[in-house]
Amino acid sequence: MNTLLRVSDLRVRYGHSVALSGVDAQVGDGELVAVAGANGAGKSTLVNAVAGWSRGRATVSGSIELGGREVVSLPAHRRCKLGVVLVPEGKSVFEQLTVDENFRMVRPPRHATGKRYEIDDVYEVFPQLRERAHARCATLSGGERQMVAIGRALRAAPRLLILDEPSVGLAPRLVVEVLQHIRALVEGGLSVLLVEQNVKAALEVADRMYLLEQGRVVGSGSAAEMRDDDRIVSAYLGRL
Ligand code: ATP
């Protein structure tokens, strides 16, 4: 499998406080890689750094390569054109606009290298949104709103789709539904980096997982390996 994203020795500081201290991680073409870890472990810091969205007084060093090209010093909009598209945690839809209007606002870059999704393609991915095409997003369920957020990201023609806690606040049934949609996108060839608090559900859909603790990768492996990892079992899955 070709490596699409290669993060090497990534370090992020906010002022004097170290949030990531030397993270190595990869995502292959057509792979779904999850990132797990406790609150404050550095998951959002990691995905924001990959997308070029580091906030506040963040200082980023190390290497972030996309398809062999160094992107660590590129601004977010340039990385987006190269296909690195982040759906941040929380609100990322325009609630006062309809589903359709939300999708129409995003156009793929002219020289997009990722797969282009026309609006109709997005409705193929999320058929239930077609029925709500003219509903204002404020009237949608949390799960539907999350699907709109992902649909907007697809419109930007991602090569690497990054999702920061897409299931936050969703009922368990909807968590599974949203994650299954994400898996289906990966089956279609997309590469995904997924931050997910619900580790059990993430392991159902991910190919591999990284476990972060205090800004370091303390474990990584295939979903099957991570399901047996003692730290994952004791912190997230519970002993049988
Ligand atoms: P959560 O699950 O709570 O979202 P996380 O694993 O995503 O946690 P981060 O949000 O990446 O963790 O935070 C990592 C560390 O960096 C934490 O100690 C946090 O307080 C700190 N941090 C995050 N963003 C900033 C910022 N803009 N300015 C200063 N410190 C920050």
TrEMBL record:
It holds the Pfam family ABC_tran. It comes from the Bacteria. One of its GO terms (molecular function) is ATP binding. InterPro entries: AAA+_ATPase, ABC_transporter-like_ATP-bd, ABC_transporter-like_CS, BCAA_Transport_ATP-bd_LivF, P-loop_NTPase. Keywords: Amino-acid transport, ATP-binding, Nucleotide-binding, Transport. The keyword Ion transport does not apply. Gene3D superfamilies: P-loop containing nucleotide triphosphate hydrolases. Residues 5-239 form the ABC transporter domain. Belongs to the ABC transporter superfamily. This is Branched-chain amino acid transport system ATP-binding protein.
